[in-house]
Amino acid sequence: MARLSIDSPLGALMLSGDGSALTSVGWGCFDHDEPDAVLAEAARQLEAYFAGRLQRFDLPLKPAGTTFRRSVWDAMLAIPYGGTATYGGMAKMLGSAPRAVGGACGANPIPIIIPCHRVLASGGAPGGYSGHGGLDTKAWLLALERRHAGISKGNGAAAEQFALL
Fold first, then answer.
1. Cβ proximity of 85 and 118 under 8 Å
2. What is the pLDDT of residue 153?
3. Which of 116, 119, 144, 164 is catalytic?
4. Would you call 116 a catalytic residue per the annotation?
């Protein structure tokens, strides 16, 4: 298994892969890195994302999870940079329940790149975030994207919401 620790504005991130795809992003550092080309590219793209120069990741991904969870993660990948969707809207689209969608968001093994931070509760409430820093991290990621997508929190709320709502 390949692995690489990188610094980010959110703290150290641990990238893992299987040699052909990125399999996880977590918080913290590995004792010993064993990078490969996929992880080096993921690190480069994450750096560009945090600098506001990248709005869409282009990486091979292989998150481990059930068929349902993978369908939720695929739906999250369709939410545009700076946009949001709701747990309920995604549940309706997938023929499921909002709590099941929330559970899949919480189990997302590739946060940031699979943008679970873009999924909100009804009425724009933040819902939850299982990554390091919890809701503060979710708010930081959403603010980063709004800033670089040219969306202000109080301006154009409908424009920032994705069609899954």
1. yes
2. 54
3. 116
4. yes
Residue type, 144: L
| pLDDT beneath 50, residues of the chain | 155-160, 163-165
pLDDT at 159: 35
Per-residue pLDDT, 92: 96
CA proximity to 145, closest of 126, 163, 160: 160
- Write phi, then psi, for 76 (nearest 5 degrees): -65, -35
**Could you give the count of Cα atoms lying within 13 Å of 106 in the half-sphere of its Cβ?**
12
Q: Which of 44, 41, 5 is nearest to 20 (CA)?
A: 41
**Angle between helical axes of 87-94 and 98-106 (0-180°, round to 10):** 110
The model's pLDDT over 82-101, given as tens digits with 9 standing for 90+, comes to 999 999 999 999 999 999 99
| Contact status, residue 77 vs residue 114, Cβ threshold 8 Å | yes
Cβ neighbours of 163 (radius 10 Å): 11
In what order do the strands lie in the sheet containing 22-27? 2-6, 13-17, 22-27
Q: Are 133 and 88 in contact (CB under 8 A)?
A: no
